Amino acid sequence: MQQTLPMTTASPRAKTLRRVELPALGLPVTLLTLLMLWQALVNISGYPPFILPSPLLVATRFGQALSSGLLWQHTAATLSAALGGFGLALLVALILGYILAHLRWLEQALAPVLAASQAIPVVAVAPLIILWFGAGLSAKVLVAALITFLPILISTIVAIRSIPRELIEMAHISGANRWQLLRYVEAPLALPVLFGGVRTGLALATTGAVVGEFVAGRVGLGALINIARGLFDTPLIFVSLITLALITLTLYVLAVALERMLVRWEA
Q1: How far apart are CA 162 and CA 166, in angstroms?
Q2: 96 touches 107 (CB < 8 A)
Q3: Which residue has the higher pLDDT, 2 or 220?
Q4: Contact 165, 131 (CB under 8 A)
């Protein structure tokens, strides 16, 4: 007698575990592949270390910079400028974006100004900011805020306008005032779209901070790159770039974790 095997389907928990395990497994494999390709390029090209250092040489220089405290000092300066600029841009973009989302005539009036401001590269504006505000932390915060501002502003406007009109009208009928409408309807429903701009802004904030440090800075990873370039310390340049990548990745992961914590209702 032929016996049929029962068909089994994977549980939702098993599917979720597979989705989590595959990216976690892919990251070390990708890093290992990149290191192998890097070492192979060093072996084939025959470039001297001051042009293309090996992964081992960069790792050694990384340890030296950590143990001496040099890397911590410059990393802290870049983080302060990046997070300060992001916080300033987030505050202004949320307020202005909320206003523009409700006042279309004001958005149409300011749209050409915003578009023109973004057409000018921040690298070109940074020297003026340094000239006006000095070479301290405030100038770097402003540069980081400028490069971070627009993505958060656009995501705020889109997030508010994507809320179904029926829900807003229902809240008005129920007697909700402006603050209650913002707290219980607009803010929760806008969060998923808004976090797209927040993630982008966090990634750009480090770029803005480094631009300010490139132009005029004695501390920060951008300044460290300039110093290492002048000393032909190419391994230290790689150390600075890797640190910047780790900072950006960490901020992105924290933003995703915060999003999942605040937007649980969406799941």
Answers
A1: 11
A2: no
A3: 220
A4: no
